[in-house]
Design brief:
With 51 residues, this protein is of the alpha+beta class. Helix content is 22%, strand content 31%. It has one helix and three strands. It has a three-stranded antiparallel beta sheet with strand order 1-2-3. Strand 1 and strand 2 form a beta hairpin.
């Protein structure tokens, strides 16, 4: 599944999908979403340089 993450504050993250949809999730909801799509929480966020 293709998506981008953007942490908007310490407790919320937005997930953007290629078709233009987005969801704003709490940390708990994000953990559930990532477990559903088979990812771990080490997925890079939009503002993360990975360095």
């Amino acid at each position: 599944m293709d998506y981008k993450l953007n942490r908007i504050n310490p407790n919320q993250t937005q997930i953007f999908f290629p078709d233009g949809r987005f969801e704003t999730l709490t940390n708990e909801e994000l953990s559930h979403f990532l477990s559903e799509v088979g990812e771990d929480e080490a997925v890079s966020s939009e503002g993360d340089t990975g360095e």
